[in-house]
C-alpha cells in the first residue's frame, strides 16, 4: 500500500510526509482468472472497502489513491492525472519474453520498429530525433531547461554544461544506429571521435547528427523536456516513471517507506527526481539532518522520499528495451559496481560475461514488475533497473531509469568484442577519475598505439570525450579483454585522478 501523492512539511523532530485520510481513498485490486499457459489472463478491477488495520490482499498490483487522481481533471487545472480514466489502464500481462540483443539493431532502430508497431505515421513529422541530453532545472546554460514542468533535481548546477551536452550524448550516440539522427548541441562530436569508433568497434554503423529540434519533430527524449511539443512517449507518464516516488507503486521488493527522518535511523532521503548522485542523503544523526535541511532550503524545497537504510553487499544494474506490446524485452546485459577495500562501492562498471546468466536470473523478478507497471501506463522504450542485495541475498529495487542507461553502450561493445575477439570482461568508467592530461588528438593516438600493440588481447574504447581546457580531456572510456586486473591497470593509465585545481 502506498500513496500516489505525498506532500512534505517540516516539523520539529524531523521531516514528515503529509498523508491523505483513508476516508479520501479508494482501494483497487487486480483479480486474475486462471488461464492455460500462453493464454492471456482475464483481469478484473475490483474496488475494496478501505478499513483501518485491515490486512491487504495479495495481488499483482494494488492501487490505493484518491479516486480523482485516476480520473480526468478539469482542463483549467495545472495538475495531470496519472491516467485519463480507469478504462485506459491495460492490466493484462503474459509471462515476459526475454531475448538477447542480436548485435544487428541499435537504439534508433528499436525506436523505429516501436513506432511502426504502434502505427505512428512518421511522415506526419518533419523528422524523428534521438535526444540523449538531459534537461536541467538548476542551470540556465544547458540546451534544455525545465522551469515550470518536469522539474529535475540537479542542484547545485554544474560549473560547466559541456559534460551534459557532450559526454552522455556522444556515449549513447555511438550505439544509435542510422534509422534516426541524434541531437548534439555542437552538431558533431569532437574531431576524431567518430573515426576512432569506426576503427575500433567492428560493424557499428556511424550515427547521423542534428543540432536543432524543430517544432514538428517527434523526439525520443532521454527525459521529458517541457518545450518539446511531440514526445515518443507521453511526457507526463515518463516523468512519473522517473520519480523515486513511483517505485513503491511498482513493487513491494524495495526499501520500506518511512514517515520521516527520525522514526528509524540511519535512513536514506532521496529527492524524487534526483539526477545522478545529487539529492541523496544518509541521515544518521542531527548533523546529517541539518545538512539535508540546508540542501532543501538552497535547492528550492524539492519533493523527496524517506526510506530504510539497507546494509548492502552487491550493487547490480541491468539494461533492456521494452517493446510496445509490453510482453517482450530485449536484454542488453548487466553490470556490477564492486565493493572496494574501504567499504565504498566503486563507480566503475564491471562487466563479466561469465556472470551474465546468473545476474539476469537475479534481476528478472524485479524487471517483470517494472515492465508490467510500464505496460499498464502505455510506456515503452529503453529502461535500466538498479537492484541492491544484502548479505542474505535479498534484493531491493531502488532505482528505475526509463531511458537508455549509462553502462548499456559498454555492454554492447563487450558483446561485439566477444563475437570478434572472444573477450570476456570489460571495465567502464564514466564518473570520477576520467581525466586525460593532454589533447584529444594525443589521447586518440595513444589509444590507437595501445590497440595496435595489443591486438586480439585487449582493446581501449573512447566512448566520448571533450577538452575541458587546453591539455585537459574529460572522457567516458572502457577497456575490454580477458583479464580484469589488466583492464583496470590500463584504465588507470588513461583515466587519471583530478588534479588539485578541481573539476566540474
Structure description:
By secondary structure, the chain is α+β, with helices and mostly antiparallel strands. The protein contains ten helices and 23 strands. It has helices at residues 107-117, 162-173, 193-200, 235-241, 247-250, 286-299, 356-376, 408-421, 440-453, 484-494, and strands at residues 7-11, 14-18, 25-32, 43-48, 62-66, 97-100, 128-131, 182-183, 209-210, 218-221, 230-231, 267-271, 280-283, 304-308, 312-322, 328-337, 349-352, 381-390, 395-401, 425-429, 435-436, 458-469, 472-481. The protein has a five-stranded mixed β-sheet with strand order 6-16-15-18-19. Strands 17, 20, 21, 22 and 23 form a five-stranded antiparallel β-sheet that branches.
Structural class: alpha+beta
Which parts are unreliable, with pLDDT below 50 for 5 consecutive residues or more?
Answer: 1-13, 16-22, 35-41, 52-60, 66-91
How much of the sequence lies in strands comes to: 25-35%
For the largest beta-sheet, the strand count, sense and barrel status come to: 5 strands, mixed
- Helical content stands at 10-25%
Overall geometric form: globular
Secondary structure tally, helices: 10
Number of strands: 23
> How far from one another are the termini?
41 Å
Average pLDDT:
86
User: What is the CA-atom radius of gyration, in angstroms?
Assistant: 23 Å
Which strands sit side by side, in order, in the main sheet?
Answer: 6-16-15-18-19
Amino acid at each position: 500500500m502506498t500513496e500516489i501523492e505525498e506532500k512534505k512539511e517540516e516539523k520539529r523532530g524531523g521531516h514528515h510526509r503529509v498523508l491523505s485520510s483513508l476516508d479520501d481513498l479508494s482501494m483497487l485490486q487486480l483479480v486474475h482468472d486462471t488461464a492455460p499457459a500462453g493464454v492471456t489472463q482475464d483481469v478484473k478491477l475490483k474496488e475494496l472497502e478501505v478499513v483501518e488495520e485491515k490486512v491487504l490482499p495479495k495481488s499483482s498490483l494494488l492501487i490505493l489513491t484518491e479516486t480523482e487522481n485516476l480520473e480526468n481533471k478539469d482542463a483549467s487545472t495545472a495538475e495531470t492525472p496519472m491516467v485519463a480514466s480507469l478504462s485506459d489502464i491495460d492490466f493484462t500481462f503474459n509471462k515476459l519474453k526475454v531475448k538477447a540483443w542480436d548485435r544487428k539493431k541499435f537504439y534508433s532502430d528499436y525506436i523505429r520498429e516501436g513506432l511502426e508497431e504502434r502505427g505512428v505515421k512518421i511522415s506526419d513529422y518533419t523528422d524523428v530525433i534521438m535526444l540523449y541530453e538531459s534537461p536541467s532545472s538548476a542551470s540556465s546554460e544547458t540546451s534544455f531547461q525545465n522551469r515550470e514542468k518536469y522539474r529535475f533535481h540537479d542542484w547545485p548546477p554544474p560549473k560547466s554544461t559541456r559534460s551534459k551536452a557532450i559526454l552522455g550524448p556522444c556515449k549513447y550516440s555511438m550505439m544509435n544506429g542510422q534509422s534516426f539522427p541524434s541531437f548534439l548541441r555542437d552538431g558533431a562530436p569532437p574531431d576524431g571521435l567518430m573515426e576512432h569508433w569506426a576503427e575500433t568497434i567492428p560493424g557499428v554503423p556511424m550515427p547521423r547528427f542534428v543540432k536543432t529540434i524543430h517544432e514538428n519533430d517527434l523526439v525520443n527524449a532521454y527525459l521529458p523536456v517541457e518545450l518539446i511539443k511531440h514526445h515518443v512517449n507521453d511526457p507526463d507518464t515518463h516523468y512519473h516513471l522517473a520519480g523515486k516516488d513511483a517505485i513503491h507503486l511498482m513493487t513491494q521488493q524495495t526499501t520500506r517507506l518511512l514517515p520521516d527522518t527520525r522514526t528509524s535511523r540511519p535512513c536514506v532521503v532521496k529527492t524524487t527526481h534526483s539526477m545522478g548522485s545529487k539529492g541523496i542523503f544518509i541521515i544518521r544523526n542531527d548533523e546529517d539532518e541539518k545538512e539535508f535541511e540546508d540542501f532543501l532550503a538552497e535547492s528550492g524545497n524539492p519533493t523527496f522520499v524517506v526510506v530504510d537504510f539497507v546494509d548492502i553487499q552487491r550493487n547490480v544494474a541491468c539494461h533492456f528495451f521494452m517493446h510496445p506490446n509490453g510482453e517482450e524485452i530485449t536484454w542488453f546485459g548487466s553490470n556490477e559496481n564492486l565493493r572496494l577495500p574501504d567499504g565504498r562501492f566503486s563507480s566503475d562498471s564491471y562487466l563479466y560475461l561469465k556472470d551474465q546468466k546468473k545476474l539476469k536470473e537475479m534481476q528478472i523478478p524485479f524487471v517483470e514488475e517494472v515492465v508490467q507497471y510500464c505496460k499498464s501506463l502505455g510506456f515503452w522504450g529503453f529502461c535500466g533497473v538498479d537492484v541492491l542485495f544484502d548479505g542474505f541475498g535479498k534484493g531491493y529495487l531502488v532505482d528505475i531509469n526509463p531511458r537508455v542507461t549509462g553502462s548499456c553502450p559498454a555492454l554492447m561493445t563487450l558483446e561485439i568484442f566477444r563475437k570478434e575477439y572472444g573477450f570476456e570482461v570489460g571495465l567502464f568508467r564514466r564518473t570520477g577519475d576520467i581525466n586525460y592530461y593532454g589533447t584529444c588528438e594525443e589521447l586518440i593516438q595513444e589509444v590507437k598505439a595501445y590497440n595496435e600493440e595489443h591486438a586480439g588481447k585487449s582493446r581501449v574504447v573512447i566512448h566520448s570525450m571533450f577538452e575541458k581546457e587546453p591539455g585537459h580531456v574529460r572522457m567516458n572510456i572502457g577497456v575490454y579483454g580477458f583479464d580484469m586486473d589488466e583492464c583496470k591497470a590500463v584504465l588507470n593509465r588513461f583515466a587519471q585522478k583530478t588534479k588539485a585545481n578541481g573539476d566540474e
